[in-house]
Write a structure and sequence with these properties.
The protein has 648 residues and is mostly helical. It contains 18 helices and no strands.
């Protein structure tokens, strides 16, 4: 009850705070534009509402699923997995369904309002679709940033004071921050993640639709079909995901990770096979003007699916329990916190290589096969099974919460053993989900570059132009400044939380002896206040960077800034997410040991690593992929204004 009430309260306050921002932004888009461009304002509001609804559904389902998972864990591992995965499945299907509904509504409105003009080369659908995506991105960024600050402030306070100083378990009900910690799992890892991946899919979908409508030399009917093809693929992707979900079952003695992977592989394999007939049937009889072929687009879809799967497997290797990278961190914990941090950062850095190479190969091959539209279709392909991927991702925080509830409600130890097993897998699946999001962000940015170039009227860019070089340098710096803001925000909020937990231990008689109840509400309020206050500056940085650079430095400088933000942001996001996931699972491995486990010096070092990794993997890292797409989409939205301002 405390967890559910706290989770809904923080989301309600967050939405009330964001509503004026959304209304003002939509009003400015409406009043600051002329003609059809005024439709950007309503489209922005609609995108923001859909993004908020995606987060709300995820939060609502998670807070209903966690206690049911705790109860199911009394029967066994498979029963607990089924309940927690079912909760994640509702969220995954809802997010993908909302994305398709939202983009379809906007697309149809463009057709009915503007007819064939909606698909002219100077496409008037482009800014309207971009406004819809921008609304989704803005709300997703604030939800992810605010949720990340909330959950990590509580988590750090609960860990450092409870585990290390007081020597009590992580989810002990005597710890005043434990309710805030469990609330944070829902606010950051569920609601924030739902809005995040909704935005991620919308950005890819809109980018592909824009490029489909922008292919020159084709009939209007053909370009409409090219814009619709990503939606057709996504619709079938939902059906493939639903079938894959049926295969997620744990047999006695087998790993939950294997069951989750098997369901994902079934969905991905089925979608790779179905992609070819979908592309061929959709474009049958259409003159594609030699740009590409229908079967070539099927190949691009399959490549996107393969690259997404590869990123997932690479992430699993670097963050999974009983894997060499995590075992190296476990070994480093024996010699103290310093070596724990050094080893974890080294593993996070090296983990960026293979995913980035996979993205590079994807872009080159798909561009060769079908041009930029092929890259866009590959980006969609990477996310066609997003419903099951998000279900796999969301099950983790549900299982984590279930373990906390088992601890607080004093369930038998074997129940916590089951939930801990699921939680360890959940750390890996969460890292895989973030890897997918970063991969899609990189590919989406590539296709949005092209959309921006078209909308801004740029024929060519000279890389040695000082404005472009300055833009690239500034863009490379932005993800670090953005991450610094988030890390410092978590640090400030955690400091207040630590002081409050220490105060309660010190001033409430009998609290540590379990003879008094802590003031949970005070800790929840500290995290809530910090989240709402600290999320504004990073959000404003993301929103106003393209506006300031574009109007002060010019279109060339803005394009360079987009390139710099993408290149440095992708690598930094992968590093942070994987390092944090590896530190967390190293702690889990030590806690599962019978000797030199909980309470040992190695465990204390692992807790320090996990505490440092928390804002890495749950605040700054996952927020970077939204930053990348938000600045690109914002640039596309303001491109017509920049074109008029600079006389292009």
């Amino acid at each position: 009850g405390y967890v559910s009430q706290g989770a809904m309260a923080i989301q309600s306050r967050e939405f009330k705070m964001l509503l004026p921002f959304a209304l003002v932004a939509a009003g400015l888009l409406f009043l600051g534009s002329r003609g059809y461009l005024r439709w950007e304002g309503p489209a922005f509001l609609f995108g923001a509402a859909c993004s908020a609804l995606a987060g709300f559904i995820g939060m609502r389902v998670a807070t209903q699923s966690n206690s049911r998972t705790t109860t199911a864990a009394m029967k066994g591992l498979n029963e607990a997995l089924q309940v927690s995965f079912a909760g994640g499945s509702v969220m995954g299907l809802s997010v993908m369904g909302l994305a398709l509904i939202g983009s379809t509504v906007v697309f149809l409105l463009c057709i009915f309002a503007f007819g064939s003009d909606a698909f002219s080369i100077e496409s008037i659908s482009l800014p309207i679709l971009s406004g819809f995506a921008l609304g989704a991105s803005c709300i997703a960024l604030f939800s992810r940033v605010g949720g990340g600050i909330f959950t990590k402030a509580a988590d750090v306070g609960a860990d450092l004071v409870g585990k290390i100083e007081a020597g009590i378990p992580e989810d002990d009900p005597r710890n005043p921050a434990t309710i805030a910690d469990n609330v944070g799992d829902n606010v950051g890892d569920v609601a924030g993640m739902g809005a995040d991946l909704y935005e991620s899919f919308i950005g890819s979908l809109v980018g592909a639709m824009i490029l489909g409508m922008a292919v020159s030399g084709l009939a209007d009917e053909t370009r409409i079909l090219l814009a619709l093809l990503p939606m057709f693929l996504a619709g079938v992707g939902i059906l493939a995901s639903m079938l894959g979900m049926k295969f997620v079952k744990v047999k006695p003695g087998s790993s939950p990770q294997r069951a989750l992977n098997f369901g994902s592989f079934v969905a991905g394999g089925l979608m790779a096979i179905l992609a070819f007939p979908i592309c061929i049937i959709t474009l049958k009889g259409q003159d594609l003007g030699g740009h590409f072929t229908a079967s070539g687009l099927g190949i691009c879809t399959a490549i996107g699916l393969a690259v997404g799967t590869a990123i997932g497997l690479i992430t699993e290797y670097f963050t999974g329990t009983n894997r060499r990278p995590v075992e190296a961190i476990v070994k480093a914990c024996e010699t103290g916190p310093a070596t724990t941090l050094i080893t974890g950062m080294g593993i996070g850095m090296v983990s960026t290589c293979l995913p980035v190479l996979a993205m590079c190969i994807c872009v080159l091959v798909c561009y060769f096969v079908a041009g930029l539209y092929g890259v866009a279709i590959a980006t969609i392909g990477m996310q066609l099974t997003l419903a099951i991927q998000l279900a796999v991702d969301a099950f983790g925080p549900i299982a984590d919460n279930a373990g906390g509830l088992a601890e607080m409600a004093e369930f038998p130890p074997e129940v916590r053993k089951v939930t801990d097993q699921l939680d360890a897998v959940g750390n890996t699946t969460a890292a895989i989900g973030k890897g997918f999001a970063v991969g899609s962000a990189a590919l989406t940015a590539v296709i949005l570059f092209s959309a921006f170039k078209e909308a801004a009227g740029i024929n060519h860019i000279e890389i040695t132009n000082p404005k472009v070089l300055v833009g690239m340098l500034m863009g490379g710096m932005i993800p670090y400044l953005f991450s610094s803001m988030l890390m410092m925000a978590v640090g400030r909020a955690a400091f207040t939380m630590i002081e409050e937990v220490r105060r309660q231990f010190r001033t409430i008689p009998g609290l540590l002896q379990d003879k008094a109840e802590p003031d949970y509400a005070r800790c929840v309020d500290i995290s809530t206040t910090a989240a709402l206050k600290e999320m504004l500056m990073p959000g404003m940085l993301a929103v106003f960077t393209p506006i300031a650079v574009g109007f002060l430095g010019g279109i060339e400088m803005l394009l360079g800034t987009l390139v710099g933000i993408t290149t440095s942001g992708v690598a930094l996001a992968i590093f942070m997410s994987n390092a944090g996931g590896a530190w967390d699972n190293a702690k889990k491995m030590i806690e599962a040991r019978t000797s030199n486990g909980k309470g040992s010096d190695a465990h204390k070092a692992a807790v320090v690593g996990d505490t440092v990794g928390d804002p890495f993997k749950d605040t700054a890292g996952p927020s970077l992929n939204i930053l990348i797409k938000l600045v690109c989409i914002m640039s596309v939205v303001i491109a017509p204004m920049l074109r008029a301002y600079w006389g292009n």
